């Protein structure tokens, strides 16, 4: 018995024969293969099986990919095509372009001139099935070939403030869409149309111009852009200035008028007076008799905008006072000083005034034309002048008078102030109001004053020729005309007189210096600074004691300086030349001797200039002395003795000599020679 079975889900025809028919199911096809098994039985014999694998090959399937577009001049990379079950594939075109490799799934297509002219081309993918299948399949995709857009924003525009800008000459070609943008903050109406309208913002108007950009798009081609500049002519800003009131005989010069953004401006009037300098911002108006009678006149400032954008006007009114003209001035405005009030006769017809009345605002009054008044304290006072003319008209004029504090004059003086040295003065003055403009120094010694003006240095120095007590003053003046003076005394101290003496100067001997300075009545000398001009002596070259001693390092001439300082810190210095002489040469010999016998000593004439020696001084080391040139001496006992010879030459210079010798004791033995120049017995 025979029986076929399957690992899949297909169906059999004649499954009990050797040559059945098997129809694969969808699942079998999806799996790509199934196992078919044949089982044979014969009675009670074991079942025998065998199997085969049935591979199921798909028919070819192709997909040319999604339709796409490129810009003219570009190649097209095919990257969305797919194919299965094929033995080979081929790309073809309906146009005149070429493939870099038409036998692969993802070739590059280069459009031909005909493709570009047609604007599109059909690309076809054909696939041949792999065996045992023998079918084929095709699929198409459409490639659009688009032209780069062209944008022309049109000519630059110009509008007046308050107008909208309609774009009328913009053009674009080969575009799918257009859009307008602005560098400003205004808005577009129909901003996606060529003929858009732009409404400038206040910021655009203030800037005076804005750039409008037209963007033309035709994807996948790059956008095309073009710009135009829109100039916005601002309307003139016109302000004729504040109204004014003038006297009935006065002219008026306009102040405070402002014009911006205009090419020209001019003044006119509703009155009948005369305008002078009518094309400036500060014209002068002289009212006519009719204006005075009417009591006012109106001035009109008209400004013309650029580029024909219209004209704009503003007005100010001049009110003409019927009462007498009046004004006054005053000075100074200083605490504690009289303030003088002066009626301004250039404005006031003083001959027509019958009555003057002043109210100084502090409870005091005056009835003269030009009074003087001292205000009680610093502060602001409302000073009112009432003037009544002979016709009975009265004018009341009030000015605020600010009374300022006087400056504070003060200074300090450096000490000490010594005769012959500059005395330094330091200005310490201050002012609460304004600033100090002048300093006048008086030194009290009959010299000229020093007058110093701001911004120069107000800190002078002064040389007093003599000592004494001097009255010094400083007068300061501030920018309000207020002044003040400070007085003090400066004491100029006389300097001490430096002097010193010194003893005879010999090489290798102490020189005694004695201070002989004179205090000069200005306080005791309290400090001494000696400089011996002897750097080779090291730290001993200087001294700060009153009467020092010094050993000079070598013969020669030295400039010895003494600077003294007195109790008032004044100083004086003196320098004297000090000559240090060389010591004379000295040497001596002796004859060997013994204790209790005469020892002979001889001045060595080969070394010592005997003709230049004034004195001899021998010290035998045992208390014995001699002033002979060649003495003898008996030692009482054997011992160590140091023998010294000091000679003084005719110049007063000294020299000391110690010399070695050899002696015998009483027993006759030879004793040792010592380098310390000693005798032994």
Largest sheet report: 4 strands, mixed
Mean pLDDT: 88
Total strand segments: 62
- What class would the helix/strand composition place it in? mainly beta
Global geometry: flat
> Any low-confidence stretches, pLDDT <50, length ≥5?
656-681
Strand order of the largest sheet: 7-14-13-10
Plain-language structure description:
With 681 residues, this protein is mainly beta. It is 4% helix and 47% strand. A hairpin with an 8-residue loop joins β47 (500-502) and β48 (511-515). The longest helix is centred in the N-terminal third of the chain and has 6 residues, at 26-31. Residues 656-681 have low confidence and may be disordered.
Blueprint of the fold:
Layout: E1 2-6, E2 11-13, E3 21-23, H1 26-31, E4 33-40, E5 48-55, E6 61-63, E7 68-71, E8 76-77, E9 82-84, E10 86-93, E11 98-99, E12 108-110, H2 113-118, E13 120-129, E14 136-146, E15 150-152, E16 157-160, E17 165-166, E18 171-173, E19 177-182, E20 187-189, E21 197-199, H3 202-207, E22 209-218, E23 221-233, E24 237-239, E25 244-246, E26 252-253, E27 258-260, E28 264-269, E29 274-276, E30 284-286, H4 289-294, E31 296-304, E32 311-320, E33 328-331, E34 339-343, E35 353-359, E36 365-366, E37 372-373, E38 379-389, E39 394-403, E40 411-413, E41 422-427, E42 436-442, E43 450-453, E44 461-463, E45 468-478, E46 483-492, E47 500-502, E48 511-515, E49 525-531, E50 542-543, E51 549-550, E52 556-566, E53 571-580, E54 588-590, E55 598-603, E56 613-619, E57 625-626, E58 632-634, E59 641-642, E60 644-649, E61 654-658, E62 678-679
Parallel strand pairs: 7-14, 16-23, 25-32
Antiparallel strand pairs: 1-4, 2-3, 4-5, 6-9, 8-12, 10-13, 11-12, 13-14, 15-18, 17-21, 19-22, 20-21, 22-23, 24-27, 26-30, 28-31, 29-30, 31-32, 33-34, 34-37, 35-36, 35-38, 38-39, 40-41, 41-44, 42-43, 42-45, 45-46, 47-48, 48-51, 49-50, 49-52, 52-53, 54-55, 55-58, 56-57, 56-60, 59-62, 60-61
């Amino acid at each position: 018995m025979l029986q076929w079975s399957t690992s899949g889900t297909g169906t059999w025809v004649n499954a009990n024969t050797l040559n059945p028919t098997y129809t694969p199911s969808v699942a079998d096809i999806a799996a790509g293969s199934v196992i078919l098994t044949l089982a044979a039985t014969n009675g009670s014999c074991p079942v025998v099986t065998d199997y085969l694998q049935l591979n199921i090959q798909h028919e070819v399937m192709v997909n040319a990919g999604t339709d796409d577009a490129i810009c003219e001049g570009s190649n097209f990379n095919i990257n969305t095509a797919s194919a299965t079950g094929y033995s080979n594939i081929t790309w073809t075109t309906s146009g005149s372009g070429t493939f870099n490799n038409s036998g692969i799934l993802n070739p590059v297509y280069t459009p031909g001139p005909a493709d570009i002219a047609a604007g599109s081309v059909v690309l076809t993918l054909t696939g041949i099935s792999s065996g045992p299948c023998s079918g084929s399949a095709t699929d198409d995709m459409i490639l659009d070939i688009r032209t780069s857009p062209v944008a022309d924003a049109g000519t630059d525009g110009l509008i007046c403030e308050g107008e909208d800008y309609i774009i009328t000459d913009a053009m674009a070609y080969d575009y799918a869409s257009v859009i307008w943008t602005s560098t400003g903050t205004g808005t577009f109406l129909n901003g996606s149309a060529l003929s858009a309208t732009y409404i400038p913002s206040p910021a655009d108007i203030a800037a005076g111009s804005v750039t409008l950009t037209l963007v033309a798009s035709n994807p996948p081609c790059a956008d095309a852009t073009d710009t135009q500049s829109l100039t916005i002519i601002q309307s003139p800003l016109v302000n004729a200035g504040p109204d004014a009131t003038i006297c009935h005989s006065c002219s008026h010069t306009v102040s405070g008028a402002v014009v911006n953004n205009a090419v020209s401006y001019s003044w006119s009037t509703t009155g009948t007076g005369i305008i002078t300098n009518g094309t400036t911002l500060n014209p002068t108006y002289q009212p006519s008799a009719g204006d005075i009678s009417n009591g006012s006149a109106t001035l009109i400032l008209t400004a013309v905008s650029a580029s024909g954008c219209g004209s704009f006007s503003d007005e100010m009114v001049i009110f003409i006072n019927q009462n007498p003209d009046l004004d006054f001035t005053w000075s100074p405005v200083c605490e504690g000083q009289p303030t003088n009030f002066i009626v301004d006769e250039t404005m006031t017809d003083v001959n027509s005034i019958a009555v003057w009345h002043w109210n100084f605002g502090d409870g005091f009054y005056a009835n003269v034309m030009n009074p003087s008044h001292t205000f009680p304290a610093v502060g602001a006072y409302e000073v009112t002048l009432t003037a009544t003319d002979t016709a009975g008209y009265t004018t009341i004029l009030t000015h605020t008078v600010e009374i300022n504090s006087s400056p504070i004059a003060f200074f300090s003086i450096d000490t000490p102030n010594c005769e012959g040295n500059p005395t330094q003065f330091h200005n310490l003055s201050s002012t609460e109001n304004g600033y100090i403009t002048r300093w006048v120094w008086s030194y009290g010694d009959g010299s000229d004053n020093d007058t110093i003006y701001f911004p120069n240095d107000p800190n002078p120095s002064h040389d007093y020729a003599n000592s004494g007590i001097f009255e010094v003053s400083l007068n300061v003046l501030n920018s309000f005309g207020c002044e003040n003076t400070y007085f003090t005394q400066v004491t100029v101290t006389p300097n001490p007189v430096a002097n010193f003496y010194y003893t005879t100067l010999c090489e290798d001997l102490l020189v005694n210096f004695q201070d002989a300075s004179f205090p000069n009545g200005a306080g005791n000398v309290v400090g001494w600074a000696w400089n011996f001009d002897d750097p080779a002596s090291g730290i001993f070259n200087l001294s700060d004691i009153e009467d020092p001693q010094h050993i000079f390092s070598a013969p020669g001439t030295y400039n010895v300086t003494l600077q003294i300082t007195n109790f008032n810190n004044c100083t004086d210095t003196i320098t004297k030349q000090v000559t240090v002489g060389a010591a004379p040469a000295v040497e001596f010999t002796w004859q060997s001797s013994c204790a209790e016998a005469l020892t002979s000593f001889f001045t060595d004439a080969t070394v010592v200039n005997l003709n230049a020696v004034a004195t001899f001084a021998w010290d035998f080391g045992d208390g014995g002395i001699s002033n002979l040139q060649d003495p003898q001496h008996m030692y009482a006992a054997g011992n160590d003795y140091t023998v010294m010879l000091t000679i003084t030459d005719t110049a007063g210079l000294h020299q000391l000599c110690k010399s070695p010798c050899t002696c015998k004791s009483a027993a006759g033995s030879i004793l040792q020679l010592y380098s310390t120049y000693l005798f032994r017995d």
